[in-house]
Design goal:
Structural class: alpha/beta
Order of helices and strands: HEHEHEHEHEHEHEHEHEHHE
Number of helices: 11
Strand order of the largest sheet: 1-2-10-7-8-9
């Protein structure tokens, strides 16, 4: 189903042509059908997956899309240092360190938690990429630490560029407006897109992209940590910023932002019975690998919704794989 007042994918890409770009993304990423998983969970809808885990650069994932624009802005501004934050096993931190290396910049990371005794997963990749990791006690300490590092960098003659958590700014989220235009060249509009949602940028871009193309597609963000109301507010605020960034592109209105926080379990990064089942089913039916923090919980949400929830009557459901595979080895 197509709504009125929309733009076509080429026009959408044209409107975004003024945005800065860094050479990080090789598009499009594949769209694949998941017939064996569909049979295993008894879904009536056709299931597809958008494989952003297959992005070649920097171990892939949704953050590479965002950093292609945000890193492009940093380069255009003359930055020589990227500064960002996350957990010890942050996918975003690893992707930022990768982007900094490709762009010939330094990378300073602020991680909440203790230095690990043994480097694994993303933390190991951060070290291999030469990023400097600064540890703080809590999430609340991250932003002040980034500003302190930026001030120290400027004082020593560097030109730092601070990237908020997840690169979830309007510019970063605009990458997923373009990703929806990419998807439009690969398949008809699905009835629903299900994905992992945390810092809000990916979901904001997907919602804005569907609205811009006039799709009636539901975009269901499965929260990895935040309460639904909180995350919904973040997504809506970012969408407002996208509207300012892409004037003339109709990203407002449309269906309400949907966030489902029922699959968080005991907390961020802690697997649940449902996420373990989802991770196992995806691997054993389709050789599709999911990470325990984000995509396994998102797939658990998709499975539950298909089995008896609000997706039971959908004809086509797309799982947007946001990557994070180094987390399997953390």
């Amino acid at each position: 189903m197509i709504l009125c007042r929309s733009v076509r994918p080429p026009a959408l890409r044209g409107a975004a042509a003024v945005l800065p770009r860094a050479p990080l993304l090789t598009a499009p990423t594949p769209v694949e059908e998941l017939p064996r998983l569909r049979d295993a969970i008894g879904a009536s809808a056709r299931l597809h997956v958008k494989r952003d885990d297959a992005i070649p650069f920097g171990f892939g994932g949704n953050k590479v899309r965002k950093l292609a624009l945000v890193g492009g802005r940093a380069a255009a501004d003359g930055a020589d240092t990227l500064i960002t934050c996350g957990g010890v096993q942050s996918n975003h931190a690893r992707a930022t360190a990768s982007a900094a290396t490709r762009l010939g910049m330094r990378c300073l990371l602020v991680a909440n938690g203790s230095p690990p005794d043994r480097l694994t997963g993303n933390a190991l990749l951060d070290r291999l990429l030469g990023a400097q990791v600064h540890f703080v006690d809590s999430r609340d300490d991250r932003a002040p630490a980034m500003e302190r590092l930026a001030a120290e960098a400027r004082a020593s003659g560097h030109r730092p560029f601070v990237i908020p958590l997840g690169a979830s700014t309007p510019l970063g989220a605009a990458a997923f407006v373009l990703a929806v235009a990419e998807l439009a060249e690969q398949m008809d509009p699905p009835d629903a897109i299900v994905h992992a949602s945390s810092s809000g940028g990916t979901q904001a871009g997907l919602v804005a992209g569907c609205r811009a193309l006039g799709w009636a597609t539901r975009v269901v963000g499965i929260s990895a940590d935040e309460e639904a109301a909180t995350l919904r507010g973040v997504v809506e605020e970012i969408i407002e910023g996208i509207a300012d960034l892409l004037p003339g592109v109709p990203v407002g209105g449309g269906a309400a932002v949907e966030v489902d926080d029922r699959f968080v379990g005991e907390g961020y990064g802690i697997p649940t019975l449902a996420s373990r089942e989802a991770q196992s089913l995806a691997a054993r039916t389709e050789a599709l690998f999911l990470d325990p923090t984000y995509t396994a919980k998102a797939m658990a949400g998709l499975i539950a919704l298909c089995r008896g929830g609000s997706l039971a009557r959908a004809r086509s459901v797309l799982f947007w794989h946001t990557g994070g595979l180094p987390g399997i080895f953390a």
